[in-house]
Amino acid sequence: LLFPVSNLCGKCRPRDTDLLQPSLNFLYWSLHQTTPCSQQRAVAVLLSNVPLLELLQKILECTWLRSPPSEPAYLSSEDALLCSGWLLVASLLLYQHRYNTEVHQTLSLDLTEVLNAVIFRKKKPILLLVSIMQFLRAVLQQNFSSLLVIIGHNTAPGATQPQPSSLQDAALHPLAMHQVFSLVVSLQNLLVHKDLLLSQAVVACLETLVEYLYVKNQDVALHVASQPWHRFLLFTLLNGGQKSFLQPEVLRLMTLFLRYQSSNVISQKEISQILQEAAEVNLAELPEATSRALHLFLCQV
């Protein structure tokens, strides 16, 4: 089925949402719900389909070309297709790197546009933001170096790439310091929404971003991780509910701040409170996400 469905997608236009939506979802799940051996073959099939990759390029670009919906919570058919496109490309990006699969057509994306899609949200539905952040995590994990996706500033053919304006910008290239801080502030603001799916995606993106920064410039990473605003964010998330420290996103944030020694964000008092709460609950009854986050926190401590 992978051959005819992927070939069918390659013959479509981005506005053929009724046909493309279930087709891209089928391709996405074909990658994820299969054995490793079949997964490698599936990646090879999709990455050899040039019309499909050209279509995905057009779909992703629609993210910043179309007007935002009037209702932020409303997921239109166009937005749903964008979600499928971003998730499929993020998956192809990771699996191409894992299996070192040959690429027959590259995708080109403007980094500024991708970041602005998260920073300046313009009433984007939550699921679309989550999908774009999945892609952003994938490119960060690969240090913006991929055979499948070329991501930089002004990726139009023949365009001149801007030169870094400082030593810090040069170390973080292609990111710039102002983009890093704008992204961090935007991620913090998204966490305040307290939507479970969004919170999971935001914390994962923040973790990957700080890891990327730490590899590029340790001072910048530690500076970002120790921002005083993080402490205010934690107090906002901890709204006084019972066992409020034992929330997956809170535990993962605490773990992140511990890893980068942000003592001005998380103190011995908070660590003790988490240990006390963990001692009082039945660990076997904790949700899997909470249990996993608590395990990572305790290992970091």
Question: Any chance you could write out the topology, listing elements then pairs?
Answer:
Layout: H1 2-10, H2 17-32, H3 36-47, H4 50-65, H5 77-99, E1 107-110, H6 111-119, H7 126-141, E2 149-152, H8 167-172, H9 177-191, H10 196-216, H11 218-225, H12 229-237, H13 248-259, H14 268-280, H15 288-300
Parallel strand pairs: 1-2
Main beta-sheet strand count, sense and barrel state: 2 strands, parallel
Overall 3D form: globular
Strand content: under 5%
Multimer state: single chain
Strand segment tally:
2
Q: How many structural domains does the protein architecture include?
A: 2
- Low-confidence spans: none
Helical region count? 15
Percent range of helical residues: 55-70%
Arithmetic mean of pLDDT: 90
Report how far the terminal alpha carbons are from each other: 48 Å
Estimated radius of gyration: 20 Å
Order of helices and strands: HHHHHEHHEHHHHHHHH
Class of secondary structure makeup: mainly alpha
Order of strands, main sheet, comes to 1-2
Please tell me about this protein's structure.
It is a single chain. By secondary structure, the chain is mainly alpha-helical. The chain has 2 domains: 1-154, no CATH class; 169-300. Helix content is 66%, strand content 3%. A two-stranded parallel ribbon has the order 1-2. The model has no long low-confidence stretch (mean pLDDT 90). InterPro entries: Immune_Signaling-Apoptosis_Reg. It comes from Herpetotheres cachinnans (Laughing falcon). This is MEI1 protein.
